[in-house]
Write a structure and sequence with these properties.
With 307 residues, this protein is an alpha+beta fold. 46% of the residues lie in helices and 17% in strands. Strands 4-7-3-2-1-5-6 form a seven-stranded mixed sheet. The chain has a three-stranded antiparallel sheet with strand order 8-10-11. The protein has a two-stranded antiparallel ribbon with strand order 9-12.
Amino acid sequence: MHTMNLFSQKRILFLVLAACSIYPIYKGINAWDRRNDGFAIEKIGSEYASDPKWNIAYTPQEIAKVNHLLDQPFSYLGRGFQCYAFISADGNYVLKFVRYQRLRPPEIFDWLPQIEWVKKMKQEKQELHDKRKNYIFTSFKLAYECVPHETALLYVHLNKTKGLHKRVCIRDRVGTTYEIPIDRYEFVLQQKAFLIKPTIEQLMREGKVDEAKKRIGQIFQLLTSCAKKGVLDTDGALIRKNNLGFLDDRAIYIDAGKLALKSKIKRKKVFVKDLKRLRPFEKWLEEHYPSLVPSFDRQKQLAIEEF
């Protein structure tokens, strides 16, 4: 009995080591994946069933408008932690798909022997990913229903549909084109924003100092508007991750996948503390455009006084 158990343990260990050895080879074969920034069409598809809690009501006119906007090709723009992004041919809109490979158990589990502890670990991973998916979906729905002006979201499609939309053309980083039945995908459509630092840099190069100061004020207006609605962006690395951008008339959150309803942000003390997330931007101004720092300080103080 002891010998049999020892044999079984050695066999399991062998299988684990074999799987661990084969897996890097498997990843190496797929090195082209890195050239495509990790994108593959199967990574934006899911097997999740529709859930009424993700439904959002749209009028026929709104659907028609979205279909018109989607009736142009979209080319690969980049990826964040949660989504792959594609920019429209006219440069005005961004189509985002959930990166579902981050919401599935690692592929290594498929290489391991399907013994009880492996199955349990895989199940735990899946439950964690399901929780993360729910967090992302909740944030997107909240963004559209509560702060669409502050996120520039035009459309949020979190449940698969049938016959509602046309096929949409997307082109990946290496130039491969796909025509996808977008009804079968979860996606969001957003206005294209310009990053805050390059925008400030351009304005200062052109000598448009007053406009640069106005842009700084728009950042504080954004945080103030969301806070008064009880919506908090939970991204602590707001500036480092380039989660703020400008439209023609306002600042917006580019990443709408990390928003949460938090009534505490309505309290002035909490709001003041939240403004510390802008400190990296202030330091950047101190280093590159010190003449704009007094404006930053004034806008900050004004936001606090008027909150």
